[in-house]
Design brief:
Layout (H helix, E strand, L loop, with lengths): L24 H24 L10 H25 L8 H20 L11 H5 L15 H25 L4 H20 L11 E2 L3 E2 L2 E2 L3 H26 L2 H18 L4 H27 L1 E2 L6 H14 L5 H20 L4 H15 L3 H12 L1
Helix pairs in contact: 1-7, 2-7, 2-9, 2-10, 2-11, 3-5, 3-9, 5-9, 7-9, 8-9, 10-11, 10-13
Amino acid sequence: MNATLSPSKPATAVLLPAKGPLLTRTGWSAFMVALIAVCAVAPLLNLWVPQGSAFHMSTYVVALLGKIMCYAICALAMDLIWGYTGILSLGHGLFFALGGYVMGMYLMRQIGMDGNYKSLLPDFMVFLDWKTLPWHWTFSASFVATLLLIVLAPALVAFVFGYFAFRSRIKGVYFSIITQAMTFAAMLLFFRNETGFGGNNGFTDFKRILDLPLATPSMRMTLFVLTGLTLLGFFLFAKWLVHSKYGRVLQAIRDAESRVMFSGYNPLGYKLSIWVISAVMCGVAGALYVPQVGIINPGEMSPANSIEIAIWAAVGGRATLIGPILGAFIVNGAKSWLTVAYPEFWLYFLGTLFIAVTLFLPNGVVGLIKKLKGAK
């Protein structure tokens, strides 16, 4: 007797969640407010409102906010690799400094014959009795080449380091220690005079950019606006990235890398690509930082600076994007006040803040705000 075979049932389709908008209506409103504040309100208060007015934005405030926005870009870059991919780097100060040194080399060439020694060579090279520029200064006089190197220099270093580290499946605390050792070794290298990076003093005494004087209110405000636009642009880019399929894979790697491998994905390419993207963001931040602050030296590569970047992300709230930006403003705003009012207590405050956030605010300031909203 032949059994009658019933037709097989069609496989149940797996429905992925619908992709939401890049930002909510409230998010776009906040973004537009920030855009207007950067491009219109700040220039108006600084350049047009008289200095004696209570609404005048001083040059000090412009420089401080510009510097903090550069730090916020680094915190955003840290969130992409730590908050969304689970890779804690304690060496991102290196990429920040590399971008800063590339821009610093261009600014040093812009000094021209206006240096103390009236030479086309930078003053520190004349002091060390150098006769020609080192090979790595070849393209430093070109602004276009400088823009390319701001991206390529940190990207290349990050790619080489990340390829061997991720290929060897180094992760966790071991990866963090290696990144810290990497930036410390680079700092020692840049301290040496024979490397051609200014040694302990680094680069300073900048005068022009694109043959335009740096020490003018209009140029300072131009750099401020460019920094703000870069920060907002990177925020939108990061928001789009983490909500794409690529971003979902990054979060899966963070939560269960072995399962991602068993699902047919190779984590190496994802981890390496987001690592390079994060490094490039820090390099761009360093390039914007140098003309506003007026100096770059090996101290920017110190492990303490890289640890601070992680603290900004932790204080604001990891895996939120907006949290690390808020963390950079909160911590550095407090730092600018405490280092003047109570300079001897600043490091104690920073350590206490990090411990308190770790113990009582594991999701940072943004997590606390969400918790209070939920309770209400």
